Amino acid sequence: MQIYLDHSATTPTRSEVIEAMGQALTQTWGNPSSLHHWGEAAATAVEIARLQVAELIQAPAESIVFTSGGTEANNLALLGVLPRQPGHLIISDVEHAAISEPARRLQDQGWQVTRLPVTPQGRVQPDDLLGALRPDTALVSVIYGQSEVGTVQPIAELAAIARQHEVLFHTDAVQVAGRLPLNVEELGVDLLSLSSHKLYGPKGVGALYVRPGLSLQPLLAGGGQERGRRSGTEAVPNIVGFGVAAALAAEELAAEQQRLQGLRDRFFEHLAGVWSLQVTGDRQHRLPHHVSFLVDADDSQGKPITGKALVRQLNLAGIAISSGSACHSGKLAPSPVLLAMGYPERLARAGIRLTLGRETTEADIDWTARVLKPLVTGQRPV
């Protein structure tokens, strides 16, 4: 039995998406910037996809900027709106590296960066944001759904605080899109990042929502594609695939959200009595597909059980899980997210993440729980 439970790392490309991309490769292969028929056909395909992505987040089509993925979208959000003169930036303590690393580089260039603390459940407190704002704060960026522990942040409330103080607000919604409803007007955000391969589209394409009227400085100098906001010939097949994936996600979202929540809660119930497992993240404010634990136990040799060891053991059983964000899964250092949530280093190396998807069944959940239990019930640590 092969069971894939790592959908926060990436999702399998849907057959409808693959078919649409094949048509784009064979029928609309022209350069969208060309004025002849072949170029016009490609440009039309891109604009249809732009509409489809925009509808997923209830945004106007012209507000969507296609990028190479979520990382570029996050970098563009920060670097595209911040002034050249160093000022003040606010992020949370549990951001993806695609935000925390650009913030670190900005700090090296003279920017002052405030990192908002989180509760033990990984939530940012609105009062902490209010207290961190300064007259020179240029931007606030808070991740919407945390990929490692599944916690969903109060984005609308945080964005409202920023707006009241005339500060721009960005959220990385890569893990949320296609899993929870998104409406940029109701959220009140100025910028929002998306990634295709998290919602059953192809890798290599993402998008940044930019509030209409907001000026954005491009990261790349070139031909001025994407209305001058992102130069480079558009990857038409990838963008077309992204559009189809977004349209399907919007159509199926309500039913799939409910189904995934049921499977998620079934998983938690299966493992509720295992003494060595501690749930990480917020149980109430949580991504519908997300299950995560810390393993507080020693193996037969008296050494702490690590998340990476469990990933390897489950892989041998044909089950794919993660020991945290896929972008950090090869590193031996303790999880920065778990450290920020107050866990000691020992436990910050013992996190596991199981993320469900369209093809996940009750049988998958039941079998994985059965396989996992004996692996995590080692000796109590001294």
From TrEMBL:
InterPro entries per UniProt: Aminotrans_V_dom (IPR000192), Aminotrans_V_PyrdxlP_BS (IPR020578), Cysteine_dSase (IPR016454), PyrdxlP-dep_Trfase (IPR015424), PyrdxlP-dep_Trfase_major (IPR015421), PyrdxlP-dep_Trfase_small (IPR015422)
Which reaction is recorded as catalysed by this protein?
A: (sulfur carrier)-H + L-cysteine = (sulfur carrier)-SH + L-alanine
Task: Please indicate which superkingdom the organism of origin belongs to.
Answer: Bacteria
Indicate the segments forming the Aminotransferase class V domain, all copies: 3-366
Reported EC number(s) for this entry are: 2.8.1.7
The alphabetized UniProt keywords are: Iron, Iron-sulfur, Metal-binding, Pyridoxal phosphate, Transferase
A Pfam family of this chain:
Aminotran_5
Cofactor(s) this protein cannot do without? pyridoxal 5'-phosphate
Coiled-coil spans in chain = none
Q: Which family does it belong to?
A: Belongs to the class-V pyridoxal-phosphate-dependent aminotransferase family. NifS/IscS subfamily.
Protein name, UniProt field: cysteine desulfurase
